[in-house]
Amino acid sequence: MAASNPDTALRQKRPPKWLEPLGLLFPGAFWLIGFLLIPTFLIFVKSLVPLGKQGFGIENYQRVFETIGGNFIYLTVVARSLGYAGITTFFCLLIGFPVAYWLAVIAPKRWQSLLLVMFVLPLWTSSLLRSYAWITILRPTGLLNSFLGLLGIPGINLLNKAEGVIIGMVYTFLPYMVLVLYTSLEKLDLRLLEAAADLGASSVQTFFKVTVPQVAPGIVAGSSLVLISSFSDYINPHLLGGPASSMISSLIELQFLGASRDWGFGSAISMVLILAVSIVIALVLKYGDRSVVSDG
Hints:
Pfam families: BPD_transp_1. By secondary structure, this protein is mainly alpha-helical. It has helices at 6-13, 20-47, 59-63, 73-106, 109-119, 127-138, 143-150, 162-185, 190-198, 203-231, 235-240, 248-257, 263-287; strands spanning 67-68, 71-72. A two-stranded antiparallel ribbon has the order 1-2.
C-alpha cells in the first residue's frame, strides 16, 4: 500500500479558501461588534424607554426639543457645544497650521523629531491636571492677573466663563491638530512652491493655490478630529466653565448621575451625540481622502 503524501494530507486539513478572509476579518469585526455596535444598540434601546413608563416610545427624543419659557433648553446646550467645538477647531487650525508648517518645512531636519516631541509633551500628562493648571492661571488671583498687575493692566476674570472654556479646549486639542497637519505638510512638494514663485505668484496666491490643496486632506482630518473631540469634551467645560457654559457631555452626565437618574433621556442625548459624530465621520470618509483638486 502506497504511503500517503504529506502535502496532500496537509491540504486536506486546511480549511476552505472562502473561510480565510473571514479569519482575517474576525479580530476587527469582534472588536467592532463587541465594543461599538452592541453598546450603541443598547444605548438606543434604553433611549426608547421613558422614565416611569412601560414599553417603548420616542418621548425621550421629543424632550430634546422641550421648551421652558419659550427657550429650547436642551437644544441650546447642543448648539452651545457645537459652537464651542467650532470656535476651538478654528483657533486650533489658525494656530496649528503655522506651527506644523514650521516644524515640517522650516525647522532643521535633525531637530524636527525632538521639536515635535516637545510640542506634544503635554499629552503625556493627565488632561485633568492640565485643566487644574489653567484654573491656577485664569482665576482672579491667578498667574495671568498677577502678570497683568505687574504691567499696570487691570485684571480680567476668565474662569467660569465661555472664554476660559475655549482657552482650555484649544490648549487641549491643539497638539492633535499639529500632529495631523505635520503628517501632511511633511509630504509637501516644495518644487511646486518654487515653480509658483518663478511664475510670479505672490506668497498669498502660492499658499491658497498650491500649499492648501496639497494638504487639504490633512486639514479636513485634523479639523474633524478636533471638532469631534471638543464637541464631546467634558473636563474643560466642567472645571473651567460655569452653569452657563455647560455642554452636551455635562448634560449627559447629569442625567445618568444626577438626582433624576433619567437614563432613558441621557441615552437619547447620547444618541444625538453619536449621530452628530457619525455625520462628521461620514463627511471625512467622503472628502478627507481627496488629493489635490485641479482648477480645470
